[in-house]
Amino acid sequence: MIIDAHAHVDEVTSLGWIDPPEKIVALMDEAGIDQAVVMTYTDLPGHNPDALEYLARQVARFPQRLIGFARLNPAYPEEAERLLERALTVHRMKGLKLHPVSTLAHPGAEPTVRLIRQAARYQAPVLFHCGDEPLTTPLQIALAGEQVPEAQIILGHMGGYFHPAEAIEAAARVPNLLLETSAMPYPALIRRAVDVLGPERVLFATDGPGCWPRLELRKLELAGLTAAEREQVQHQNVARLLAGVRHGDLR
Questions:
Q1: Along the 251 residues of the chain, how does pLDDT read in single tens digits?
Q2: What's the CA gap between 131 and 100, in Å, rounded?
């Protein structure tokens, strides 16, 4: 079984983002991917006030294939916390997505840390966009990991084009950081991440449909992972994180 830890569905015509769930499901079928964690391109609160309900509807259309993560903006702490609770308890989503490029919220600042703490109370993983832009580098996200050691924090794209070595070093130092392989173009660094951190802390992902899932899987082949390592990276690790999420109201 293969689970993609990071993909997208969204339909916001005013922004030119037209990626209905049929698109990612077709790409999953082409690549032989069984399930995918999906999130919107838009943050809440933000441009599209229907983003959370939209995501819930699309996941409900493909309940055996798609798993929802709520994409939220920590700059609106009370509203974001309310929406996260709704996502996890009402819609039974499995995690939180944070994208500091679009929210301009520093990973180590109190509003972000507060939202991560809430996710951790539900044992819900937190996926950060982690790349080359300001506010997204591995060392900046590591500040959040250090403040909330009980949280499982995923570095999406494991540092992008120019910071993957830094991502491996940060994860080696901060044990609750995990690395996710999408859109990072160096298979040899996937191999290095597995060697340094162990296969249990590396997750396969595609960032589809923006990135081609078949190519993202090919990176694992080029990385030279053993069959046992690939089973952990492309299935067991994500499945373990998702299985631990609590959906009860904690108030």
A1: 999 999 999 998 888 889 999 999 999 999 999 999 999 999 999 888 999 999 999 999 999 999 999 999 999 999 999 999 999 999 999 999 999 999 999 999 999 999 999 999 999 999 999 999 999 999 999 999 999 999 999 999 999 999 999 999 999 999 999 999 999 999 999 999 999 999 999 999 999 999 999 999 999 999 999 999 999 999 999 999 999 999 986 65
A2: 10
Q: How many CB atoms lie within 10 A of CB 54?
A: 17
Cis amide leading into 49 (omega within 30): no
Integer Cα distance of 92 and 17 in angstroms:
25
Spell out the domain ranges in the chain. Answer: 3-224+231-243
* Pairing relationship of beta strands 35-39 and 126-129 according to DSSP bridges: unpaired
Cβ contact 73:45 at 8 Å: yes
d(C-alpha 20, C-alpha 227), whole Å = 33
Helix (H, G, I), strand (E, B) or coil at 251: coil
Q: Answer yes or no: are the C-beta atoms of 127 and 69 closer than 8 Å.
A: yes
Closest CA to 179 of 152, 147, 161: 152
- The answer to whether 39 touches 71, Cβ cutoff 8 Å, is yes
Q: What is the CATH architecture assignment of 3-224+231-243?
A: Alpha-Beta Barrel (3.20)
